[in-house]
Amino acid sequence: MTEVNTDIKNKVELIKEKAKLSRLETIRLIAKAKSGHYGSSFSSSEIFATLYYHVMNYDPENHRWKSRDRFVMGKGHSAVGVYPILADVGFFPKEELDTYTDLGSPFGDHPDMNKIKGIDFGSGSIGHGLSVGVGMSLGARLDNEDYRTFILMGDGEMQEGQVWEAAMSAANFKLGNLIGIVDNNKVTVDGHTHEMMNIEPLKEKWESFGWNVIEVDGHNIEKLIETFDNLPQANSDIPTVIIADTIAGKGVSFMEHGYEWHVANLGEDDIKRAVEEIEGGQ
């Protein structure tokens, strides 16, 4: 028992450090681009790190491996937070990130599956991710593969009608190999979600569409590990959505909960303060 607890403790510490890496590199890359998505990238950092360092099956040396788990970012504007993790696990050299948003660079504000190894879908307009995930999950069924498809969506994305068409389809086709993750950080680019277009009651809505629903603190790594470790088998009949309660701008006190940091740029003094807070975070 002690040995198992030690393993989990070590895994939690690893994921915590990789979430910090995601946040620190997000700051560095956005400083280079002079504009970017801090809030929604920081709210997803622990989710990114848990997926890539604990949950998903993939091979950086064979990025199109047929049996790999798929990861689709509906909220593709948070790609700046996942690029550093893809580099860290070996999909491409870390030095390539230094070209972020340069003319001709593969690394843009949104991910491009045709240019970046490790990206399974090139996102853009919000709301398409779950539909893509349904297609990938159906493909796994047709090919007798047992991989899972993970879709990260924003809570503002729940305002898109296409999300709910896809949700209905996933339940209809009994896609238990499809895992939705809602980054429920309560903000959109223009304001707080409940003020712009209220999406609640979110849990009951997903349940009414025939999904298994799990609610979790999206920054609690132990709970995230437990949640992912206890997912239904990929060959089950009911899709699962994880509603992750998160904080926009998590890790930087003057950003937290603020929709103003959805798209922004930090001055030099604020960069220094943000980096100090992230590096000193527990």
TrEMBL record:
<protein>
    <submittedName>
        <fullName>Transketolase</fullName>
        <ecNumber>2.2.1.1</ecNumber>
    </submittedName>
</protein>
<keyword id="KW-0808">Transferase</keyword>
<dbReference type="Pfam" id="PF00456">
    <property type="entry name" value="Transketolase_N"/>
</dbReference>
<dbReference type="InterPro" id="IPR005474">
    <property type="entry name" value="Transketolase_N"/>
</dbReference>
<keyword id="KW-0786">Thiamine pyrophosphate</keyword>
<dbReference type="InterPro" id="IPR029061">
    <property type="entry name" value="THDP-binding"/>
</dbReference>
<feature type="domain" description="Transketolase N-terminal">
    <location>
        <begin position="19"/>
        <end position="274"/>
    </location>
</feature>
<comment type="similarity">
    <text>Belongs to the transketolase family.</text>
</comment>
<dbReference type="GO" id="GO:0004802">
    <property type="term" value="F:transketolase activity"/>
</dbReference>
